[in-house]
Amino acid sequence: MAEFDSTHLLSTLPNLPGVYRMLGETGDVLYVGKARDLKKRVSSYFQKNDLSPRIRLMVGKIHAVEITVTRSESEALVLENNLIKALSPRYNILFRDDKSYPYLLLSGHDYPRLAYFRGTPQRQDNCFGPFPNSYAVRESIHILQKVFRLRTCEDSVFNNRSRPCLLHQIQRCTAPCVGVISKADYAADVNNAALFLAGKANEVLQAITVKMQHAAELMHYEEAALYRDQIKSLTAVREKQFVTSNSQADADVIAVVAAHGLLCVNLLMIRGGRHLGDRSIFPQNAQDVSTQEALTAFIAQHYTERAVPAQIVVSEQVDEPALVEMLSAQAGYAVRIQSKPTGERKTWLQMTVNNAQLAITRQVAQKTTQSARLSALQTALNLPNLQRIECFDISHTMGEATVASCVVYDLEAMQNSQYRRYNISGITPGDDYAAMRDALTRRYTKIQQTDAQRPDLILIDGGAGQLNIAKAVMDDLGITDIMLIGVAKGVERKAGMEQLISTDGQATRLSPDDPALHLIQQIRDEAHRFAITGHRARRAKARVTSSLEDIAGVGAKRRQKLLETFGGMRELKNAGVAEIAQVEGISLKLAEQIYQALR
């Protein structure tokens, strides 16, 4: 490709804020950036000699440059991050975080439900968070159940209970479903839980203490004992909480650490003065990126579609007024980014730095282990190159709800976002060979059609029969340059006793302590897990609806209404004709048909 002539481009660029896109020869976006002055910023790429190796390589591939002028630098920053998220340019540092952050939800029900939640809440619901991971949410739910005994059941179950559940018996729920607690008392518990989540534990303790003393004065000793136990539980939770704040403000603490050729960003979340946990992120395309550049990129990308706290404590100076302006405009209040904290914030930041360092140490150790395993497997199979491995497994119950899984190992790690499940139908129930044929055909036909990345090795969870099917499929597709290996469990079906079967019928058994076998087991077990979770979900869905689908006059909407009303098939089967007839859209005659069909 001829070298890009930047002279004409630079002469036409305006001295205005905006976004620029560097394009490759085929029109692919190499890099997206924003500028306060487009002419100065874009010119710097072609006039500087001190570019990093990564950016110098990118400049050498530029074939064209596109610009978009904006009204301000902060507007350019918003557009830049939207484009980075949409296009994933290969030379931008990318903080991919496919999972949304979870929240703790108190529903808008008359008797609010405590629940784990991802996504967009209903307007009447009350959400707390975000939390860095699902464990932090579930731990908080456990605490709130123990202290305030709020319900966690689905509304459909709540509406149809006739007696308290097991959670009431172990003092984790006050059983509002059957009127054991009044609406006013339950509302008070919900309010105390909300105050606790907002960091106002002292107010909650004072309120419960007053109730305990009042109950004791009235000689309601059992009630006073319950309040006493609440106080003990809440005090124990506060003592267990390592990070607490003298204020109730929300804050995010962000540290960037570079070591051992890796760059890690650790995000610690403080909400209502409580430490909710932390998350470590390793960005893509981070070669030759400074920690300051990485920090700025993370803040800009992370908060594009997430709530922004009023305080952000960081490990590096962020010299980006447009970034603060963008965050404040998005939040609707002034956002402060603090790089030299004191007091408790300094303690938080040091914790976050330590977390990032530990994450890098773990990542290095894991990469060393994975590298050794991959090298051992490559040697054992005598492969010239081994980077990408795909593994297939089949899961069903007596031929019911058959699901095939394909998991991917690449870059010395499992690549969850590239996993695929295949729902198998149109075969004889229990025919694993036909299921394997179907999954492999669908997978590699698509790969050939889209010219997607091909594996260096395909593992088939099964013996010679499944392997022969795999070979036949690949031969039919004209794919003969990928090694196929069957992983048979052996007669005793014990871990460490697996046999590796090649397409020529040779069977090899590796030593139980061989790193190559450990890698195969790791990938095979992940394929099994992914297949069986998909199978269970498909089977459960089928079993819930299958018996209703056979009833004339019960369509999808009526099935959904019945299941929502009764909370499940078991409860529906236990219902009488009169109860079924009370469901909207169900006549007495149809209720009788449903009643008889379910028996």
Automatic annotation (TrEMBL):
GO molecular function terms attached to this record: DNA binding; excinuclease ABC activity
Every UVR domain range: 202-237
Domain UvrC family homology region profile: 253-474
GO cellular component, one term: cytoplasm
KW DNA repair (keyword) present: yes
Keyword annotations from UniProtKB, A to Z: Cytoplasm, DNA damage, DNA excision, DNA repair, Excision nuclease, SOS response
Stretch forming the signal peptide: none
Subcellular location as annotated: Cytoplasm
Family membership noted in the UniProt record: Belongs to the UvrC family.
Name under which the protein is recorded: UvrABC system protein C
Organism: Sulfuriferula nivalis
